[in-house]
Every structure is written in C-alpha cells, then in structure tokens.
Amino acid sequence: MHLPECDSLSRRGRGMTSQRTRDRMVKRLARQGIGDARVLELMAREPRHLFVDEALAQRAYEDSSLPIGFGQTLSRPLTVARMTELAVQAEPRRVLELGSGSGYQTLLLSRLVAEVYSVERIAALHRRAAQRLAWLEAPARLKVADGTLGWAGAAPFDAIVLTACARTLPQALLEQLSDGGVLIAPVATGDGAQSLIQVRRTGRLFEQRRLESVRFVPLLEGVVE
Ligand code: SAH
C-alpha cells in the first residue's frame, strides 16, 4: 500500500529540523523544572516536528502548543514533558492515554513504558497518529473510541493520562486504575481555569492532589468517523 504520509515523513525525517533546535528546547525544559533525565533525553532525540503539518514543522520546538487540525492542539513541550514525567515516575508497566491527538505524547510514553494504549475520538487524527507511530516503530496500541469509557479489555493500568480536560473525572477511568496506580488529568476548576491533578489509588481509596494550572482542549463524548 502506498501511503503519501510516509513519503513526507521519510523526506522530513532526514535533517531539516536540527539537533541544535531540540537541544535548545531541552535546556529550556530543564530550566522550566523538568527533572526526569529519561524524559529530557528522549525529547532531545525524538522528532516532534513530524507530529505537526509540514508548514508548522519549523515551530515544533518552540515553547507553544500547535494546531493539529479539527480544532485540536499538540500541547506545548513543557506540558507534554510534565505529564510524561508524572506518568512514568512510579515505573508503570501498562499505561493508557486518552486523546492520542498527533501521537507525540504516545511516542514518548511508548519509549519509556512496556505497554502503551491510546484512545482518540476523531478517526482522522487517529489514522495520522497511527501512521507516524508505525513509521517510527513505536509499539503503542491505538484505537478510535470515546476515551471516557477507558479501555476495559486492557485494564488495569498503572497510569492513565488524559490529554483533554474533563469537567468531572469519569468513574470508569478510576475503576481501571491498578492498586497503586496514578491518573494524571487536567480538570476544570469552575472559573474557566484548569488544573492538572494527580489521583493515586490505594485499594478503594482515591487520593487527589492538585498541581499546576494548565490549558487543554475539552474532553468530549462520542466518536467522529
Ligand atoms: N496528546 C496529544 C494531545 C492532543 S489534544 C498530542 O500529543 O498531540 C487532545 C486530544 O483528545 C484531541 O485529539 C481530542 O480529539 C481528544 N479527545 C477529546 N475527548 C476525547 C475522548 N472522549 N476520547 C478520546 N479522545 C478524546
């Protein structure tokens, strides 16, 4: 099968967006408080510019979020780094990401965790993310579905990461956490603002911690074919 997207990836994968640009981004991330060396090394290596349209590739390593179509965005490097750092802190074996989007966060997780599952509700974004990840040989399992339901067939997860903002945390997701597992999610705080929260499960106890302010697109229900 001929995939035009793969021709473009192969052409763009060779150089253009240089190692120096990535190194600058990683220095900035360290200054901004990212402390996990594994995450920094990974982001210095992996081609974030392949996860946006060619016209935006030059801006891929800037300190900003970028549009990926369908009104969705690839989060700024700091946010992706922070979520990844929080997700892998306790050495999870199996992770669920909700909102594959471009697939960039999925790529990072798949380099650090044995089993990565990722759900996206917009089929066209899912297809593009799947092509990029296959091209980069990232072994994540992806599907099109409403992520508010989690991925019951693959549960329990040691970490669940939401990359879209929930109004309330879907109960199904909490149920799919393993004992000792963590959920990282942006949640609306009522005044139009959002906070990143971390929920840790111990048996039937769910302990919630509020972290920094963030800005994400909303978590929506249903699937867009
Ligand atoms: N992690 C992504 C961020 C994408 S933005 C990246 O690195 O590019 C958030 C994504 O969540 C969007 O693609 C949006 O379509 C998706 N999303 C929103 N609600 C969802 C839901 N209920 N289930 C699955 N995906 C959802």
Describe the structure in your own words.
This protein has 225 residues and is α/β, with parallel strands linked by helices. It has a domain at 64-213: Rossmann fold, CATH 3.40.50.150. Helix content is 32%, strand content 26%. It has seven helices and nine strands, in the order αααββαβαβαββαβββ. The strands form two sheets. It has a seven-stranded mixed β-sheet with strand order 5-4-3-6-7-8-9. Helix 7 (171-175) links the parallel strand 6 and strand 7. Helix 2 packs antiparallel against helix 3 (37-45) and helix 4 packs parallel to helix 5. It is globular and about 50 Å long. S-adenosyl-L-homocysteine binds next to strand 2, helix 5 and strand 4. The active site is at residue 75. Its EC number is 2.1.1.77. It catalyses: [protein]-L-isoaspartate + S-adenosyl-L-methionine = [protein]-L-isoaspartate alpha-methyl ester + S-adenosyl-L-homocysteine. Catalyzes the methyl esterification of L-isoaspartyl residues in peptides and proteins that result from spontaneous decomposition of normal L-aspartyl and L-asparaginyl residues. It plays a role in the repair and/or degradation of damaged proteins. InterPro entries: PCMT, SAM-dependent_MTases_sf.
List the keywords:
transferase; two-stranded antiparallel sheet; 7 helices; 7-stranded mixed beta sheet; EC 2.1.1.77; cytoplasm; binds S-adenosyl-L-homocysteine; methyltransferase; S-adenosyl-L-methionine; alpha/beta; Rossmann fold; 225 residues
